[in-house]
């Protein structure tokens, strides 16, 4: 996996079973302002399915970062981003219950997801 927050990350295929709990792994420690649960975050991110390794979403592919209020995002991001500092890169492995649910109408329901997130700003 590349560890440079200026370039699109590459996610290696995971080994073993998908985790049942949220995994939070700092790949690059940021030195800027810290994200809080109440923050709006400016992020670049890549999302892939745990089982297939298929990319399902990427701000990198769109060529621009995205601003989100954390409270409007999936639970895995609401729990996994606070404490992260601007300039950092963090990997989240999000089980279905903290992503899009275990079953239902969303195409990603029932799937464990891997995100690599570069925090570029908080407000």
TrEMBL record:
* Coiled-coil segments on the chain, per record: none
Where the record annotates domain PPIase FKBP-type, the positions are: 38-123
Write the signal peptide boundaries: none
User: What are the start and end residues of every segment in region (Disordered)?
Assistant: 1-20
Q: Which GO terms describe its molecular function?
A: peptidyl-prolyl cis-trans isomerase activity
Claim: Isomerase is one of the keywords in the record: yes
Which EC number(s) are documented for this chain? Answer: 5.2.1.8
Q: Does the record's keyword annotation contain Nucleus?
A: no
Q: What is this protein called?
A: Peptidyl-prolyl cis-trans isomerase
């Amino acid at each position: 996996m590349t560890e440079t927050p200026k370039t699109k990350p590459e996610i290696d295929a995971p080994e073993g079973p998908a985790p049942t709990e949220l995994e939070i792994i700092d790949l690059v420690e940021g030195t800027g302002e810290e994200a809080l649960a109440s923050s709006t975050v400016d992020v670049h991110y890549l999302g892939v399915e745990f089982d297939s390794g298929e990319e399902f979403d990427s701000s990198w592919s769109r060529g621009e970062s995205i601003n989100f209020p954390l409270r409007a995002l999936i639970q895995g991001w609401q729990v996994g981003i606070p404490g992260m500092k601007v300039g950092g890169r963090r990997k989240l492995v999000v089980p279905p219950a903290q992503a899009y649910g275990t079953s239902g109408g969303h195409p990603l329901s029932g799937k464990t997801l891997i995100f690599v997130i570069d925090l570029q700003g908080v407000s």
